[in-house]
Amino acid sequence: MSYEYGFDRFHLGEERASRVTLKSSTPKYSMKVNMDRCIGCMSCEVSCKKEHNLPVGPRRMRVIQVGPYFVKKGQLRTVYLPMNCFHCDDAACVKACPTGSMQKRSDGVVFNDPNTCIGCKSCIQACPFGSPQFNDATGKVTKCDYCRHRIDKGLLPACVTLCPTDALWFGNINRISTVDREKTARKLTEHLFGFVTPPSGMGTSSVNDTDNPVKVG
C-alpha cells in the first residue's frame, strides 16, 4: 500500500472530522481536481454532455490543455485542467441574472432554472471563468450544477463517476480540505525527513466514500 502524495484512499475518523466540521452547519459541496492524476482523456466532458443531453458547443465540464511546453532540453510536458463551475460564495452570475433563474442553494450549489431563463446571456458576461454556456438548441443558458438531480439522490456527479484516474474529488468541503491538508503534510514530511508515517486508524475508503459517496463530511 502506497502512502505517497498521490494516495487519496484513506478514511477520516469521526473524531478528526468533528474538529473541522461544525455539527450545526449546513453541509456544502465542493469539487477538487488533482492535476497530477488527470491524463486528458475527456471522459468527464463526454459523461457530462451525455448526462445532460447537450449538443455540440456548450460544455458544462471543460478540459483545458496547457502545452505541450519544454521542461528540459528535449522533454515536453502537457498539463490538463478539468474546469467546471466553481460555485462561488458570492456568485457574479446570480447577481447579474435579471429574472432570478440563476440561483444558489444552501448547500453551495449554483444552478440555472431553465423555466425562467430568457437566454439574455447576462450571466455569461458576468462569470470570469466562462462557466455558463449558451445552448443554441434551447435558447437558454446551461451550466454545471454538480448534477444536482444526482447528488440529491446520494449519487456522485457524472464526471466524477466516470473519471478513470480518480482525478476528481467531490463531497463535503470540510472533508475534502482536511484530506488535502493531511496529504500536503505527508508530502512535506517525506521531503524533510525522507519518510512518511502511515495514518493510524484509517481504512481504505476514498474521498468519494462508497457507502455515502456525497455527504462524506
Question: Could you walk me through the main structural features you see in this protein, from its secondary elements to its overall organization?
Answer:
This protein is 25% helix and 19% strand. The protein is of the alpha+beta class and 217 residues long. The chain has a domain of 128 residues: Alpha-Beta Plaits. It is globular. The relative contact order is 0.22.
Layout of SSEs?
Layout: H1 14-20, E1 29-33, H2 43-51, E2 62-72, E3 75-83, H3 92-96, E4 102-104, E5 110-112, H4 122-126, E6 133-135, E7 140-142, H5 148-151, H6 158-161, E8 168-172, H7 173-193
Antiparallel strand pairs: 1-8, 2-3, 4-5, 6-7
Structural class: alpha+beta
Tell me what portion of residues adopts beta-strand conformation: 15-25%
Q: Average pLDDT, to the nearest integer?
A: 80
- Helicity range: 25-40%
Count of helical stretches = 7
Question: Looking across the biggest beta sheet, what order are the strands in?
Answer: 1-8
Task: Using the coordinates shown, work out and report the CATH topology of the domain at 38-165.
Answer: Alpha-Beta Plaits
Order of helices and strands: HEHEEHEEHEEHHEH
Low-confidence stretches: 1-19, 200-217
CATH class of the domain at 38-165: Alpha Beta
**What distance lies between the first and last C-alpha atoms, to the nearest angstrom?**
24 Å
CATH architectural designation of the domain at 38-165: 2-Layer Sandwich
Provide the gyration radius in Å: 19 Å
Find the count of extended strands (DSSP E, 2+ residues). 8
